[in-house]
Every structure is written in structure tokens, then in C-alpha cells.
Design brief:
A hairpin with a 3-residue loop joins strand 2 and strand 3. The protein folds into 2 domains: 200 residues, von Willebrand factor, type A domain (Rossmann fold), CATH 3.40.50; 32 residues, no CATH class. The chain is built from 8 helices and 10 strands. The protein has a 6-stranded mixed β-sheet, sandwiched between helices. A two-stranded antiparallel ribbon has the order 6-9. Strands 7-8 form a two-stranded antiparallel ribbon. Helices cover 36% and strands 20% of the residues. It is elongated, with a radius of gyration of 32 Å. By secondary structure, the chain is of the alpha/beta class. Helix 4 packs parallel to helix 5.
Length: 252
């Protein structure tokens, strides 16, 4: 399961001169889909709350389609509830399925809402590894404000000061440690997913096989009965008995 931060802070443009944090994350997830082979994948989006955008599946085309619709406008509740996102990912898994499971949290780490470390610990206790990927810069960047698709300025607090959003690596590292996973800091236009992919690929996998069974029911008795009936009818309507029936009668 991938948990993708779609809070407004993901609009900050401190990853790439041409792309904001969320755009870089989306492109990197697309690259991740190209590296997976047979792994089931799902997508949870979160800000102040979280919900499942894509149920877990092996349909990577569907995953790309759902990913293309991800934006900061999806969530009316702002904030960064990483714990809620981890819990939502956990509910997406089949608890009876013994395959290895992993959660990849992609965020700037500005968790203001809940106990993300506690959620990661609970996930790890249930055999689910939690990896985190940090997007943004420790120095921080303003959050652009858009109206009708056009950038009109930057976000300001109640006193008129520019709001600066910073990458919280300490928080993301703690979450990964609590979840038994690894923390990776994204750079440029690459989230560094190779390391995470290698970790997931090394996990024990369970192959799902579909078997078809054919159950045969004996019905030859019907045809034998019809054959005997025809032979009896023949003996009744013909003057010369059938040679086969004559031998049958003689043996009886």
C-alpha cells in the first residue's frame, strides 16, 4: 500500500524547479509501478484525514488511472495525519492472507494530527513493514496559493507572515524505525524508490494459483437402457428375431 500526502504543503516547489512535491511524488510512483512484477498495490491519500483511493490490486493500469486524478483538492480537511493513513492502509490488507505486506508513506513529514509512530508500531506488530520517503527540503519553502489554476501568491499566517513548510526528516525516520522499515530522502525528481523496491522484492512472496477441477458424472446407464429398449421393441415388431437377442435368450 502506498500512502500519499496530498496536503497543501505538498504544493511547495523545493524539489524541482519545474515541479512541486506532489508532482514529483506522482511521477515517482509511476516509475515504481514499472518496477513491480506481480505485486499487488493500493493507494491511500491523506491530509487531515485519509481514505483509500485505489483498493489493493495487480492492475497497474488502473493504478496509473487513479494516480492521475490525485491532487490537493481531494481533501477538504487539511493537515497531515500520517497515523490515520497507516491505519487506513492496514484495513486495506486481508488479515488472513499470509503474504508479506508493506506500506510506503510519501510525505514531507509535517505530522500535526495523530500518533503516527504508534500506528507504525501496531502495523509492525502485525507483520506489516512501514517505509517512509521524505519529499521537500529541510530549509523549507513557501506554499503557493492557486485560484482557477493560476498561482496568485503564497500562503500567509494570520499575522501576514509567509508560511514555510519544511521536510521533517526526524519524524519520518522515527515512523520508519517504529514500523521496521527504512527512511529515504527524495532528491530532485527522484524519490529514491529503488531502495524501497529492492526491499519489497526481497520479501517472501506467495504465488496465487487458480486451478480448474472437472467433475465427471457417469451417465452411460441412460444409453444402455435406451439400447435395450430398442432391441426389445425390435423383437416385438419383427417376425425374425434379432441374432443378438436370440443368443441372449439362449444363454438365459
Amino acid at each position: 500500500m502506498i500512502a500519499l500526502d496530498v496536503s497543501n504543503s505538498m504544493l511547495a516547489e523545493d524539489m524541482n524547479a519545474e515541479m512541486n512535491r506532489l508532482r514529483v511524488a506522482r511521477l515517482s510512483i509511476e516509475k515504481l509501478l514499472g518496477k513491480l512484477h506481480g505485486d499487488r498495490i493500493g493507494l491511500v491519500v491523506f491530509a487531515g484525514a485519509s481514505y483509500t483511493q485505489l483498493p489493493i490490486t495487480t492492475d497497474y493500469s488502473a493504478a496509473r488511472l487513479f494516480l492521475s486524478g490525485v491532487s490537493t483538492n481531494m481533501m477538504s480537511s487539511q493537515g497531515t495525519a500520517i497515523g490515520s493513513a497507516i491505519d487506513t492502509c492496514m484495513r486495506a490488507f486481508n488479515s488472513e492472507d499470509e503474504t508479506k505486506k508493506a506500506i510506503i508513506v510519501i510525505s514531507d513529514g509535517e505530522n500535526h494530527e495523530d500518533d503516527a509512530i504508534g500506528s507504525a508500531k501496531r502495523a509492525e506488530s502485525e507483520g506489516v513493514i512501514v517505509h517512509t520517503i521524505g519529499v521537500g527540503s529541510p530549509e523549507g519553502s513557501p506554499i503557493p496559493v492557486y485560484e482557477n489554476g493560476q498561482k496568485t501568491g503564497v500562503k500567509r499566517d494570520n499575522e501576514g507572515n509567509t508560511v514555510i513548510t519544511k521536510l521533517n526528516e526526524a519524524m519520518l525516520t522515527e515512523i520508519a524505525n517504529a514500523g521496521g522499515g527504512s527512511y529515504t530522502r527524495a532528491s530532485g525528481s527522484d524519490l529514491g524508490l529503488d531502495r524501497v523496491v529492492r526491499s519489497i522484492s526481497s520479501m517472501e512472496k506467495k504465488e496465487y494459483l487458480a486451478e480448474m477441477y472437472t467433475d465427471y458424472e457417469d451417465q452411460f446407464q441412460i444409453f444402455i437402457g435406451l439400447g435395450l429398449l430398442l432391441l426389445v421393441l425390435e423383437s416385438l415388431i419383427t417376425e425374425k428375431p434379432n441374432p443378438w437377442l436370440r443368443r441372449l435368450y439362449s444363454q438365459a
